[in-house]
Amino acid sequence: MSEFSNLLIECFRNYNIWFLSFIIILQCIGIPTGSSLLVMASGAFAYAGESNVVILLLEVWFFSWLGDNIAYIMWRGIGDKTLNNHPKVKTYFQPKIFKAKDYLKKHGRISVFFSRFLISSTGPFINAAAGITGYKLWTFNLFVALGELFWTCIYLGLGYWFGDSWETIVPIVTGFGQFLTYIAILIIALYFFIKAIKNKNRKN
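Above: the chain sequence. Below: its structure as tokens.
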């Protein structure tokens, strides 16, 4: 592992859940912190008897949910303030916001749910889009809670399952996550490419 990863783990062992919660919230906002790695490490520490795995699961789940809500509220405020105070910016971004709003109306639940754990790198972008477009908060909260439960169980469970040898699976988990991200980008690019072709054919 990198020196940064080792530093994160050392800080977690010194400051426990409060440091982990801070890292998770930053990740939800969009600052890459390596929270998945840290949650795996915490699962391994729970296996070693340093903490109760059930309590740890509930804590990680709660702070993941809290981080997503902080990101949603933050982007909701930024979006409203920016658009209301800068008419030129509003004119430029309004069509894009309408498209994002339409997308979330059709695919919001699936996007919020799967971006929590399956393609977690897109989570901060979905949080931003949901906040700026004013996506229904109760729907966002429900699918965030479900998705983050999966994320917490997966990474905490991997650390707990592999115990002292958890570091051996880090490259595999990281590589798999990158693979899913590339697949997601490809699918999204193909979606918009096909949609653009259909719109062009309709005009012709």
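The chain has seven helices and no strands.
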